[in-house]
Amino acid sequence: MKIPPGLPVVVVLCLSVFVRAQGPDPAPKPSFEPFPPHPRLTYTVLVGTYTDKTDSKGIYAFSFDTQIGKLAPKGLVAETPNPSWVAVHPNGKWVYAANESGKQSAISAFSLDSGSGKLTPLNQLPSQGEDPCYLSFDKTGKYLFVANYTSGTVAVFPILRDGKLGAPTSVVKNAGALGPNKDRQEGPHAHWVAASADKPEVYVADLGLDHVVIYTFDRNLGTIFPRPKQTDSFGAKLSPGTGPRHAAFSPDGKFMYVLGELTSTVTVFASDSQETWRSIQQISALAPGFSGRNDAAEIAIHSNGKWLFASNRGQDSIAVFAIDPQKGTLALAGDFPAGGKEPRHFALDPTGQFLLVENQYSNNIVVFRIDPVTGALAQVSKTENVPSPVCLVFLP
Fold first, then answer.
1. Are 297 and 312 in contact (CB under 8 A)?
2. How confident is the model at residue 268 (pLDDT cuts 50, 70, 90)?
């Protein structure tokens, strides 16, 4: 089995989903007018994997050529168990991985050689919960946030001056009314965490509670805590059984898009003058007429703010939505085959020309070119023999 090497630029990859046309109304044919000219760039990409019951050993690196839209393997850069989410620090010097391993779950810190993509272990600490599945940073880069799925806990770790993780400064467990899906919503399940860009707040998408919970964040102490009762409405409540997994914000911060794993939908929230979030739309991420098992997985907005992408596991597609620039609402623009099985994650390259999809069960990464006019996707390359890829990150 060949395993991909190398990375000069790190990019974390998450999937977008386009609805695959079925029946008499095929998806519009991409026009693929060119993007504005870009210099030819080569990025290093880090790919996180599952190592349990697979051939994977940990984190792999690739180089990505923006002229031809193709990955070239550089090999294993860190041997570590189940690095299902990988995050590159804003300074480009350190990398953090969620080791998703039940009660033995941990967070690992590495120093990064940006030329080769090689990772050198710094330290590893317990994740303060079970099965960490998402990592992010506060805007200062001083803290790492961890969402622990199975235990429903969220932890905050300070990042020390040498890149190591310090003892956690805060651990909270989401609380609230559970959703109606007794198999998947038997308890709180934190699946995504992100700090506000301009307010002292942290957002947590909880699949078990059908809620994006908003915590107050003390940047001096590194602590998060529930908002006062009188402002409990400052959150985003989804329809029962939606199962929020990940979320994305519009470039101007006025709209929040929440992907529902259990219903394969995107719910659009708008903020108002009272600093509350109200739902203005819920739209399916599935192609019309599709039936069968599906779990939505990843969501992302293009840097131009025109398109939103989501991935479907089951239908195995990437859905593409056009975003109304004034209203923030979505219209399904197309659905495109993911080129493999179980597209758990995808990522947009830094130039905005390509979308890279990791197909977990078919062990491949597929590169699509994005039509700059319609947002449509066209496959340009496929990298095989990537064991159980589930996260992709670009190094600048």
1. yes
2. very high
Rounded Cα distance, 157 and 390, in Å = 23
Inform me whether the pLDDT recorded for 29 exceeds 70. no
Give the distance from CA 241 to its chain's centroid: 21
Specify the pLDDT at position 36. 57
> What contacts 303, CB < 8 A, 6 or more positions away?
251, 348, 352
Report the distance separating Cα 41 and Cα 262, nearest Å: 38
Topology of domain 10-395, CATH: Methylamine Dehydrogenase; Chain H (2.130.10)
Parse the chain into domains and list their residue ranges: 10-395
Considering the chain, what percentage of its residues have pLDDT values greater than 70?
88
- Can you give the chain as a three-state secondary structure string? CCCCCCCCCEEECCCCECEECCCCCCCCCCCCCCCCCCCCCEEEEEEEECCCCCCCCEEEEEEEECCCCEEEEEEEEEECCCEEEEEECCCCCEEEEEECCHHHCEEEEEEECCCCCCEEEEEEEECCCCCEEEEEECCCCCEEEEEECCCCEEEEEEECCCCCECCCCEEEECCCCCCCCCCCCCCCCEEEEEECCCCCEEEEEECCCCEEEEEEEECCCCEEEECCHHHCCCCEECCCCCCEEEEEECCCCCEEEEEECCCCEEEEEEECCCCCEEEEEEEECCCCCCCCCCEEEEEEECCCCCEEEEEEECCCEEEEEEECCCCCCEEEEEEEECCCCCEEEEEECCCCCEEEEEECCCCEEEEEEECCCCCCEEEEEEECCCCCEEEEEEEC
In the sheet that 377-383 helps form, which strands lie side by side, from edge to edge? 343-348, 354-359, 364-370, 377-383
State how beta strands 170-173 and 10-12 pair. unpaired
DSSP lists the bridge partners of residue 274 as none
Rounded CA separation 299/261 (Å)? 11
Q: Is the pLDDT of residue 219 over 60?
A: yes
pTM, whole model, 2 decimals? 0.89
* Residues across the chain: 396
Residue 59, amino acid: I
Q: CB–CB of 295/246 below 8 Å?
A: no
